[in-house]
Design a protein that fits this description.
Layout lengths: L2 H19 L9 E5 L7 E3 L15 E3 L18 H10 L5 E5 L2 H7 L10 H4 L6 E3 L10 H9 L4 E4 L3 E6 L2 H29 L7 H12 L12 H12 L6
Parallel strand pairs: 5-6
Antiparallel strand pairs: 1-2, 1-4, 2-3, 4-7, 6-7
Helix pairs in contact: 2-5, 3-6
Length: 249
């Protein structure tokens, strides 16, 4: 196996483990897909039936845009779930990694008309930079792909109404950190709203100009801000290595 593919497998397996560590996985469901380096239409994805905490570099399955296996593997693939991932990978060449979860906080926020509100510094990154896709049922119909891509537009984060959240990254590290920051922001929003409903008083929200300024600082890497994951990812891998390095096998 080429070294570039093996390194990609290790990175993707780490991403699965980190999502599991945050308790953002959904048993054997949800997916994180990664384009095989040097290809346009080959991808790595989790074996159907394995928990995220069990994923290893060698267990990942190589597939085509339709979710069909391209390499010998004893594992099956949930091809229907690749309807979402396949459409985005093919439409967005810089979307090397596509991450989709059903976390409680993201689902709760997805059902709110405005989605994620700029109520915390975590949330400012996503101010006017989150897409929305209305729920159409279980995403197994191929004709939904065009609407998914159209709704995503140029964003790297999309709330799938009543369903979950989707993040796109040039690397697994970027996709993971966007998920992490979105999840933190969603939890904070729900906590603030619960407190306000309980009589704590109105929630203060910064003005639009300040929110836009903060968002641009994140996305344009002002000051010492780097692309999401560039600084955090090596530290997270060191943490994984101390706890359980089996993801590399």
């Amino acid at each position: 196996m080429p070294r570039a593919e093996w390194d990609a497998r290790v990175s993707l397996a780490a991403c699965y483990r980190l999502v599991a560590n945050l308790k953002l996985d959904d048993l054997i469901y949800n997916h994180i897909s990664l384009r095989v380096p040097g290809t346009h239409d080959e991808f790595l994805i989790n074996p159907y039936g394995m928990l995220f905490e069990e994923i290893t570099a060698s267990s990942l399955v190589r597939i085509d845009p339709q979710g069909r296996k391209l390499s010998d593997s004893p594992y099956e693939v949930n091809a229907a779930a690749f309807v979402i991932h396949g459409a985005i990978h093919q439409a967005k060449r810089d979307a090397a990694c596509v991450l989709h979860t059903h976390s409680d906080a993201s689902i709760a926020v997805s059902a709110q008309r405005e989605g994620l509100l700029p109520l915390s510094q975590f949330a400012m990154r996503f101010y006017r930079r989150q897409a929305f896709h209305d729920y159409e049922g279980v995403a197994i119909d191929m004709d939904e792909q065009a609407r998914l891509v159209a709704d995503l537009g140029e964003h790297r984060v999309m709330l799938m109404r009543n369903h979950g959240v989707l993040t796109l990254g040039r690397t697994p590290g970027e996709a993971f950190m966007l998920l992490y920051y979105f999840e933190r922001a969603a939890r904070i929003q729900l906590s603030m709203q619960a407190a306000a409903a309980g009589g704590a008083g109105p929630i203060l929200q910064p003005g639009r100009d300040v929110c836009e300024k903060a968002a641009r600082q994140f996305w344009e890497q002002k000051g010492d801000i780097l692309v999401a994951g560039e600084r955090e990812w090596p530290a997270l891998l060191r943490q994984l290595d101390r706890v359980d390095p089996s993801y590399k096998t």
